[in-house]
């Protein structure tokens, strides 16, 4: 019984509407921070442009991240507990069609801030990837026992950061992030039904 009490989220369970509003508000806040940083920091947004090859690579990278996440979920008990804790709060109240918003809103707003603005602001180098990825990981902290999930999000941030740097196109990271969120959340949601 005590073990079940430890698994209860410290954040109260949210309704579907509350989760959707929180996602929207968070996306707007991240967008505002990115716009202000671009304006006041005199930074040029990391370039992004339409390229079919980068679109396909982004899809492939998103599927690969989802598969790696599934392996981590299956074989790492601390990660599974941490992911379940976070996803219970975020995904449980959502309907399957809502997952489109879960893919798009964070995928666009988080990539805009962490890879689109923060990466060039910090120098668009290895240190910039690490610092922006650590910030991205901490964004996913929802409680003191969430460190395995934060570490995983940080690793994903590194992958997304290097995908943008190596391709020279933020589109690849945006697509990979959206695909990862869509597929991972769909797999988790359908397994928990």
Topology (elements, then pairings):
Layout: H1 2-7, H2 16-40, H3 52-75, H4 77-90, H5 99-121, H6 126-139, H7 147-167, H8 170-192
Structural description of this entry:
With 193 residues, the protein is mainly α. It has eight helices and no strands. It has helices spanning 2-7, 16-40, 52-75, 77-90, 99-121, 126-139, 147-167, 170-192. 36% of the residues are buried. Residues 1-6 have low confidence and may be disordered.
Q: What is the string of SSEs from the N terminus onward?
A: HHHHHHHH
How many β-strand stretches?
A: 0
Beginning-to-end CA distance, first to last residue: 23 Å
Overall residue-averaged pLDDT value: 92
Shape: globular
Determine Rg (CA atoms, Å): 16 Å
Largest sheet features: none
- Return residue spans where pLDDT drops below 50 for at least 5 consecutive residues: 1-6
How much helical structure, as a percent, in the residues? over 70%
Which descriptors apply to this entry?
mainly alpha; single chain; disordered N terminus; 193 residues; 78% helix
In brief, what are we looking at here?
It is built from eight helices and no strands. The chain has helices at 2-7, 16-40, 52-75, 77-90, 99-121, 126-139, 147-167, 170-192.
């Amino acid at each position: 019984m005590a073990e079940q009490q430890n698994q209860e989220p410290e954040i109260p369970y949210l309704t579907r509407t509350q989760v959707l509003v929180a996602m929207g508000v968070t996306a707007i806040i991240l967008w505002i921070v990115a716009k202000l940083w671009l304006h006041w920091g005199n930074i040029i947004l990391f370039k992004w442009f339409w390229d079919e090859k980068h679109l396909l690579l982004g899809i492939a990278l998103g599927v690969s991240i989802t598969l790696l996440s599934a392996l981590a979920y299956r074989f790492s008990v601390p990660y599974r507990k941490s992911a379940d804790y976070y996803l219970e709060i975020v995904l449980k109240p959502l309907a399957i069609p809502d997952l489109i918003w879960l893919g798009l809103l964070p995928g666009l707003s988080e990539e805009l801030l962490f890879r689109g603005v923060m990466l060039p602001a910090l120098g668009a180098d290895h240190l910039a990837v690490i610092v922006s990825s650590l910030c991205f990981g901490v964004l996913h902290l929802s409680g003191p026992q969430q460190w395995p999930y934060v570490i995983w999000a940080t690793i994903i941030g590194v992958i997304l950061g290097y995908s943008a740097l190596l391709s020279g196109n933020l589109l690849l990271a945006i697509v990979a992030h959206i695909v990862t969120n869509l597929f991972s959340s769909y797999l988790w949601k359908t397994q928990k039904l």
